[in-house]
Write a structure and sequence with these properties.
There is one protein chain. The chain is mostly beta strands and 301 residues long. The chain is built from no helices and 24 strands. The protein has a four-stranded antiparallel β-sheet, with no helix packed on it. 38% of the residues are buried. Keywords: Protein transport, Repeat, Transport, WD repeat.
């Protein structure tokens, strides 16, 4: 398959991109304060820009598509401290469905919950708080906040899979957990209990000595353990694993990349980890049967 070039027409640096559920459209976030929606299924070149979403007053750091069972919704977060949830109508027009402006400084990361637990968006901000905004049955939005989640600033957030360890999909209780990362070089696991978020574990590692830039909770798919990857400004990726409830999280250095690691993300089956580090260095990793991680692919820029 020939590679295809996409002209984004942003006036400044692009910080994030996300492909929708059907693989037809790409959303991009830029320092020019806009979000763009581009068709990637169109056969014409260059790919048409379908919409430019304006409403932020500073660099837009992240974009995230909601599951299509909730309609066509896209969330964005910005240096301006705002989170905007955009909705597309049947005619392709985008509007602001909800603006969350309670954070006091930059919102650095957003992630939608697994669709099974409902329409909930978790947000991590430089003001130290993590907030979870959830759509109610009447269409209004409710907010739960973790105050002082990372007092010097929260940088990254990821949801746990909705199904419990070892259980088949669709059976048993749903899991409501989050992992966050911060400027404090620490990752923390939170659980929703009796109507509020509570700290379950602080993943303190002498391996991370600088800001945790990203965290990613792996899909479980019937596995007997939970796995989280954390990536840091210090160049290191740490893999955290935990067996059943009551066990402790164990951290193990996967690799030191020698330059800041910006993003980590798991494949849908949870067995391949993609790592973005330094300048355009993207690699894919898989755990061998001996527990050592090996590089399986390098993505050439």
């Amino acid at each position: 398959m020939a590679s295809k070039k996409i002209e984004l027409d942003h006036k400044d640096m692009v910080h994030d991109s996300a492909i929708d559920y059907y693989g037809k459209r790409l959303a991009t976030a830029s320092s020019d304060s806009t979000v763009k929606i581009v068709s990637i299924s169109a056969t014409t070149a260059p790919s048409p820009v379908l919409a430019t979403l304006t409403g932020h007053y500073g660099p837009v750091w992240r974009v995230a598509w909601a599951h299509p069972k909730f309609g066509t919704l896209l969330a964005s977060c910005s240096y301006d401290g705002r989170v905007i949830i955009w909705k597309e109508d049947a005619h392709g027009h985008w509007s602001q469905a909800h603006v969350y402006a309670d954070h006091k400084s930059s919102v650095n990361s957003i992630v939608w919950a697994p669709y099974e637990v409902g329409l909930s968006l978790a947000c991590a901000s430089s003001d130290g708080r993590v907030s979870v905004i959830t759509m109610q049955a009447d269409g209004g939005w409710d907010t739960a906040t973790i105050e002082r989640a990372h007092p010097v600033g929260a940088t990254a957030i990821s949801w746990a899979p909705a199904t419990a360890l070892g259980s088949l999909s669709g059976s048993g209780e749903l899991v409501y957990k989050l992992v966050s990362g911060g400027f404090d070089a620490v990752a923390k696991v939170w659980g929703f209990d009796n109507g509020s978020w509570k700290l379950e574990s602080t993943l303190i590692s002498d391996m991370h000595t600088d800001c945790v830039r990203d965290v990613a909770w792996a899909p479980v798919l019937g596995l007997a353990k939970s796995t989280i990857a954390s990536a840091s400004q210090d160049g290191k990726v740490v893999i955290w694993t935990k067996g059943k409830d009551g066990d402790k999280w164990e951290g193990k250095l996967m690799r030191d990349f020698g330059s800041p690691v910006w993003r980590v993300s798991w494949s849908l089956t949870g067995n391949i980890l993609s790592v973005a580090a330094g300048e355009n260095n993207i690699t894919l990793w898989k755990e061998g049967s001996d527990g050592q991680w090996e590089e399986v692919m390098k993505v050439e820029p």
